[in-house]
Amino acid sequence: MPIYRERLSVPVSWWIIAVALVVTLFAIVTVPVGMFAGTLVGGVAALILVLWFVQYGAARVVVDGERLQAGRAVIGRAFLGKVEALTGDDARHAFGRDCDPKAYLLLRSYVKGAVRVEITDPRDPAPYWVIATRHPDRLAAALTGHSVARS
Predict the structure, then answer these.
(1) ∠ CA(11), CA(9), CA(61), 5° rounding?
(2) CA angle, residues 138, 105, 73, in degrees to nearest 5
(3) What is the enclosing helix (H) or strand (E) of 75?
(4) What are the extents of the domains in the chain?
(5) Model confidence over 24-60: pLDDT tens digits?
(6) Cα distance between residue 142 and residue 106, in whole Å
(7) Do residues 95 and 107 make contact, with C-beta atoms less than 8 angstroms apart?
(8) Which of 43, 118, 146, 151 has the fewest CB neighbours in a 10 Å radius?
(9) What is the pLDDT of residue 146?
(10) Which pLDDT score, from 0 to 100, does residue 148 have?
(11) Model's pTM, two decimal places?
(12) Helix residue ranges, H only, the chain
């Protein structure tokens, strides 16, 4: 039974921009070439964008009693050390200038919060994971076994 679960789906604004892009492509091709070509180009663009958004936004963060899953990576909770909720500049710097190149990152540019989790497994080359999350305090609490009031 999951203690914490989050899907890092793409925001609605991305879908709106994608619709505008598809309509623009349709119009750009339809006017000089014709309706069939415009529909074909618009349809292919729409299909590519939908598949990409669904795949990119399918990343999940799941914490249960035994493990932490961040995207495709999974680690036992026994190998987790210090947990730190990050927001604002701290979260941005954790993915950028302050990041160890060996760290595992689950980054989504549209998610502003993050959690840094120290990895204590001596066989794991990553010293820590930085996980994008919309709810850094809740994820950190789930990993440390504390409770946080929902806002």
Answers:
(1) 140
(2) 80
(3) strand 73-76
(4) 7-56, 62-144
(5) 999 999 999 999 999 999 999 999 999 999 999 999 9
(6) 18
(7) yes
(8) 151
(9) 66
(10) 54
(11) 0.83
(12) 12-33, 35-56, 88-95, 136-144
Long-range CB contacts (within 8 A, 24+) of 20-27: 21/45, 21/49, 22/46, 22/49
CB 62 within 8 A of CB 71: no
* Distance set, CA 146 to CA 3, 19, 46, 86, 121 (Å): 11, 42, 43, 17, 23
Q: Can you give the length of the chain in residues?
A: 151
Concatenate the DSSP letters of all residues of 49-73 into one string: HHHHHHHHTT-EEEE-SSEEEETTE
* Tokens (6 digits) for 100: 């160890």
Tens of pLDDT along 60-116?
999 998 999 999 999 999 999 999 999 999 999 998 888 999 999 999 999 999 999
Buried b (16+ CB within 10 A) or exposed e, 43-66: eebbeebeeebeeebebbbbbeee
Q: Are strands 60-63 and 4-7 parallel, antiparallel or unpaired?
A: antiparallel
